[in-house]
Specification:
This protein has about 325 residues and is α/β, with parallel strands linked by helices. The chain folds into two domains: about 1-115 and about 295-325, Medium-chain alcohol dehydrogenases, catalytic domain (Quinone Oxidoreductase, Chain A, domain 1, Alpha-Beta Complex); about 125-265, 3-Layer(aba) Sandwich (Rossmann fold), CATH 3.40.50.720. The protein has nine helices and 15 strands. The chain has helices at about 40-50, 120-140, 160-170, 185-190, 225-230, 255-260, 275-285, 290-295, 305-315, and strands at about 1-10, 15-20, 30-40, 65-75, 85, 100-105, 110, 150-155, 175-180, 195-200, 215-220, 235-240, 265, 295-300, 320-325. The strands form three sheets. Strands 3, 4, 5, 6, 7, 14 and 15 form a seven-stranded mixed β-sheet that branches. The protein has a six-stranded parallel β-sheet with strand order 10-9-8-11-12-13, with helices on both faces. It has a two-stranded antiparallel sheet with strand order 1-2. The two termini are about 15 Å apart. The structure holds NADPH dihydro-nicotinamide-adenine-dinucleotide phosphate. NADPH dihydro-nicotinamide-adenine-dinucleotide phosphate binds near residues 221, 245 and 267.
Length: about 325
């Protein structure tokens, strides 16, 4: 028997409970993993609460990422005892996920635990941190180097935002952090932010073009914020967009793109190609200050994940939530 969160849905009810399941209950897959740590991402919070249409099949074990040790494998790439990490691939959405003591998945979805991290650190980074690195890589591919000017991070005190601020600062960028929580200003400065702005500056309907402020931006918020971020991006700058914390809409004009040559780059972590994942994790191992990772992380037990999901959606969680599935 093993512990797992299980989401059930019928006509009247959407419920997530801590349950005991058996190995035979696990879905098909060629690698079985003893999960050590998982995390609570924004998407997991939507799945657990039912506030967003994340789960495509019921019953479902949520958890879009995990790190653990291979228990059994029919996959050529992994053997028992190997330490592995999983991000995305529809796990926790249409295939049972990581908020459980056991997971069975396709070995093609796994990557080896990157050297330099233990399982807990890998999940302190989690899908949010790996997505932050994908955003940094996207800006680099657009040629946004630290000498070109400041880089903005929106939703800065959240999971993606916190890791993005830490990464960009270590890479030598001057980071402007946009947050709705002024009380987290000191935290963001400790992560490396040079300047903090109030997210209200960006969250209301704005002009097609505003004064040029940043050379690049990582946006986790979407909606009017993303429109205003693009409108304030400097000539030939780039914006990496990965999130929708304010909204899925994009009430923008083409002006920044056709008059200032701004590039809007979409960042997607779930189906991202294996080579790019490996590159992102390799770069996290090189460019993320482990001491800052501790500052970003709060640990909870598996059973606490249900109540804590509501706090994420209310925007009350700072940084990253790691889930110890074995307590
Ligand atoms: P978090 O909940 O940790 O952070 C989101 C942050 O956004 C909050 O901390 C808050 O930051 C800000 N925020 C919340 N509500 C609003 C609002 N109404 N208006 C403006 N800002 C708001 O989530 P994550 O960091 O884990 O994820 C961020 C986004 O990225 C989510 O939308 C998530 O779905 C998406 N995502 C996408 C991925 C992809 O593959 N494309 C992968 C991972 C995440 P503050 O308090 O500092 O203002």
């Amino acid at each position: 028997m093993f512990n797992a969160l299980l989401i059930d849905k019928n006509d009247q009810d959407y419920q997530t409970r801590l349950r005991q399941l058996q190995e035979e209950d696990l879905p098909a897959g060629d690698v079985t993993v003893a999960v050590e740590y998982s995390t609570l991402n924004y998407k997991d919070a939507l799945a657990i609460t039912g506030k967003g249409p994340v789960v495509r099949r019921f019953p479902m074990v949520p958890g879009i990422d995990f790190a653990g040790r291979v228990e059994g494998s029919d996959h050529g790439g992994f053997k028992p005892g190997d330490r592995v990490v999983l991000n995305g691939w529809g796990v926790g959405e249409k295939h049972w996920g990581g908020l459980a003591q056991r997971a069975r998945v396709s070995g093609d979805w796994l990557i080896p635990l990157p050297a330099g991290f233990d399982s807990r650190q890998a999940m302190a980074i989690g899908t949010a941190g790996y997505t932050a690195m994908l955003c940094v890589l996207a800006l680099e591919r657009q040629g946004i180097t630290p000498d070109l000017g400041e880089v903005l991070v929106t939703g800065a005190a959240g999971g993606v935002g916190s890791v993005a601020v830490a990464l960009l600062a270590k890479l030598g960028y001057r980071v402007i952090a946009s947050t709705g929580r002024p009380q987290e200003g000191e935290y963001l400065r400790q992560l490396g932010a040079a300047e903090i702005i109030d997210r209200n500056e960006l969250s209301s309907p704005g002009k097609p073009l505003a004064s040029e402020r940043w050379a690049g931006a990582i946006d986790t918020v979407g909606s009017h914020t993303l429109a205003n971020v693009c409108a304030s991006t400097r000539y030939n700058g780039a914006v990496a967009a990965c999130g929708l914390a304010q909204g899925m809409d994009l009430p923008a004009t083409v002006a920044p793109f056709i008059l200032r040559g701004v590039t809007l780059v979409g960042v997607e972590s779930v189906m991202c190609a294996r080579e790019r994942r490996l590159e992102a994790w390799q770069r996290l191992a090189e460019d993320l200050d482990i001491a800052k990772l501790e500052l970003i992380t709060r640990e909870i037990a598996l059973g606490e994940a249900i109540d804590t999901a509501g706090e994420i959606l209310a925007g009350k969680i700072r940084g990253r939530l790691v889930v110890d599935v074995n307590r």
